[in-house]
# Entry
Amino acid sequence: EVQLQASGGGLVQAGGSLRLSCVASGFPFDDYALGWFRQAPGKNREGISCISDGSTWYSESVKGRFTISSDNARNTVYLQMNSLQPEDTAVYYCAAVHRGTYFRPENMDYWGKGTQVTVSS
# Structure
């Protein structure tokens, strides 16, 4: 059974930090790029970060504030989120796609259920 289990969301004040975790199972973790999307009500799902074979990418909206990392031995990807702002409020989704495929929502092979992040002003 393929699973992407995201956790770590919550409610924080502006300027605070959270670390999201995503534990993967049921597929060969090392053959996939792992990343994070987010979706706020009324907005499109937005890719914010991914990691593949040690290379990382960030959207302009989170660059300099968020850091993605992975622990391949534990099949886990993390997203450290610092300097959170109210506009970061969204459901955050962990997703996976086979390496070599462009990292955008329609190409993802697997999705987690998501975890809510709420940032108050």
User: Anything to note?
Assistant: The chain has no helices and eleven strands. The chain has a mean pLDDT of 96. The CA atoms of residues 6 and 54 lie 21 Å apart.
